[in-house]
Amino acid sequence: MTRHVLRLSDLDAFEVAAVLDLAEASGVDAVLAGKGAALVFEHPSARTRNAAEMAVVQLGGHPVTIRGEEIGFDRRESVEDVARTLACFHGLIAARVARHRTLERMVAALDGAGSGVPVVNLLSDYEHPTQALADLLTIRQCFGGLAGRRLAYVGDANNVCRSLLDACALTGVSVRVASPEGHELGEEDLSQARELGGTVERVARPEEAAEGADVLYTDVWVSMGEEAEADERRRSFRGFTIDEALVSRAGPDAVVLHCLPAHRGEEITDAVLEGPRSRVWQQAENRMHAMRGLFALLLKDGAGTAAPEATR
């Protein structure tokens, strides 16, 4: 059965650990040798595109990056036809999409055709699993392990937050999330993390979340597609900035993470982003290593080999 990763919870705890181990392995099998990898981007990308392309190269493959206007989902041709076409040429499809449903349709089309090509979510409006794997890798490197650590997420309970919540649940990291009214975690998100074994609290103020935390984490207040809400969001998120005063409430060895891009002076101050607690650039590099580990896991033992007779 072909494995796909559209949500972080598509992996179990053992597989998450395996991805992190593969990310740090000194040598990884060239599971993409002689194969292409289709990297589709409906949204602009800096870190994700660079990380994905280099991960494919390190696994022996050839990355082919395709912009949204070149694909034209449901304009030039259907999502299903695009997916089956790409599977004719590539051993892996990874996509950054505007709507999570696009990924689900790609998977359904490929599985229905018996293609054997895995699909990986490089960001959707619902989740960002490859980011969460890089976050776990960074925390593990900082502290030597994950279980028992405490993470404070301050800001919008968005796609990054959802994936991070499940990632922490699977690895024994407890989480407190502080978001302004109207931008909080939903009950479904909390239930999902708790069903995975996570300890999750939803709190009202950043100070409460940060108290004694090992990791302080934030993301932009205005994500892609939300530009029309920018002014309202900036008003709502006042007081939810990670600054030096908030960092002082965290544990003595606490580190600060941000998935980037950063809007300095909004969700994080320049002093914190460039300060001694910041591990943001280590975290950015780990995007590549974590993605390499994930692709290697999905493609090991011949998985992900295209079946041309099923896709043509």
For the record, give the distance between the C-alpha atoms at the N and C termini, rounded to a whole number: 20 Å
Q: Spans with pLDDT under 50 lasting ≥5 residues?
A: 303-312
CATH topology of the largest domain, by name, is Rossmann fold
| CATH fourth-tier homologous superfamily of the largest domain | Aspartate/ornithine carbamoyltransferase
The Cα radius of gyration reads: 19 Å
Level-1 CATH class name of the largest domain: Alpha Beta
- Number of DSSP strands? 9
Tally the structural domains.
Answer: 2
Approximate strand percentage: 5-15%
CATH architecture of the largest domain: 3-Layer(aba) Sandwich
- Pairing-aware structural class of the strands and helices? alpha/beta
> How many distinct helices?
14
Helix share bin: 40-55%
Strand order of the biggest β-sheet: 7-6-5-8-9
Average pLDDT confidence is 94
Shape annotation: globular
In short:
The protein has 312 residues and is an alpha/beta fold. 43% of the residues lie in helices and 15% in strands. It has 2 domains: 8-127 and 287-302, Aspartate/ornithine carbamoyltransferase (Rossmann fold); 129-285, Rossmann fold (3-Layer(aba) Sandwich).
What does this structure look like?
With 312 residues, the chain is α/β, with parallel strands linked by helices. It has two domains: 8-127 and 287-302, Aspartate/ornithine carbamoyltransferase (Rossmann fold, 3-Layer(aba) Sandwich), CATH 3.40.50; 129-285, Rossmann fold (3-Layer(aba) Sandwich), CATH 3.40.50. Helix content is 43%, strand content 15%. It contains 14 helices and nine strands. It has helices at 13-24, 47-58, 68-71, 79-89, 100-113, 129-143, 159-171, 187-195, 206-210, 230-236, 244-247, 270-273, 280-299, 308-311; strands spanning 36-41, 62-67, 90-96, 119-123, 150-154, 174-178, 200-203, 215-218, 255-258. The strands form two sheets. It has a five-stranded parallel sheet with strand order 7-6-5-8-9. It has a four-stranded parallel sheet with strand order 2-1-3-4, with helices on both faces. Helix 1 packs across helix 13 (280-299), helix 2 (47-58) packs across helix 13 (280-299) and helix 4 (79-89) crosses helix 5. The longest helix is centred in the C-terminal third of the chain and has 20 residues, at 280-299. The chain starts with 12 loop residues before the first helix and ends with a helix. Mean pLDDT is 94; it is low at 303-312.
